[in-house]
Amino acid sequence: MKLENFLRHDMQVSRRLLAKCKYQGSILRNGAHIRTVDTVYPGDEIVLISPDAESKVEANLSLKVPVLYRGEHLIVYDKPPFMPCHQSHGHYTDTLANAFAAEFAEMPFRCITRLDRNTSGVCIVALSAYGAGFVQGKIRKSYIAAVTGSITDKGTVDAPIERKDNSVMLREVRADGKSAVTHYKPICSNEKYTLLGLYPETGRTHQLRVHMAYIGHPLAGDELYGGDLSDISRHALHCNRVEFEEPESGRVITVKSRLPDDIKALFSNIDL
User: Fold this and answer.
1) Considering only CA atoms, which of 126, 162, 148, 135 is closest in space to residue 217?
2) Would you say 48 and 21 are in contact if contact means Cβ atoms under 8 Å apart?
3) Do residues 221 and 234 make contact, with C-beta atoms less than 8 angstroms apart?
4) Is 94 considered catalytic here?
5) At residue 148, what are phi and psi to the nearest 5 degrees?
6) What are phi and psi of 121, to 5 degrees?
7) Residue in 116, 158, 165, 262 annotated catalytic
8) Bridge pairing between strands 193-200 and 181-189
9) N or C terminus: which one in the chain shows less Cβ crowding within 10 Å?
């Protein structure tokens, strides 16, 4: 088949990466340059030399973030709460990007499953442009959240989300918003909170927080969307599981993270 068909459809190389490699002339077959319109055959060795142009960040050797999985193209961290993924105003050296740079100094930071600063748990970072393109849009994620009030039955929230007028950060459910779907299932409860499993079909900004507030059960500690800060100092949301195909082998990888102590402390006798 033609090289372009092999790379795009069989190897799932992204259009963006393929275009960059074509422009740079950095695709080799058996050590020699090859065009994407040329035919490739069984036994050929195809090498893409990725022209990474993304900016790098300063390394912070004092940041220690547990690694849950390490492969050729992906690394998965157990991100603690209160740590941003990317640098922003007031957070230039305390981010996951800074921790990543401490080990991968010459590599751009490609965060595939970005979590809010206060959300903890499983976070995937790509070690190559190919790895990023391979898993993009095909990752299955689940979360655990402590929400205010009692929920006794599983359900689904299908409600579009859009940025709130005159706000840079806040989102809201609106008829003219982008489609957003969240499934939920209760795990346990007490007189104040319910521990839920959350399974998003879509990935809108603040989706889980907005949807839970929309049905009258804001996350504990989520003051931005009506939650109560009296028992926990951050919104009680944790990414506990991701599932993806490993780029180098195609096998399905499942990575899990245990529920952190501050969310567990809202309940008794749970072990997650």
Assistant:
1) 148
2) yes
3) yes
4) no
5) -75, 140
6) 115, -155
7) 116
8) antiparallel
9) N
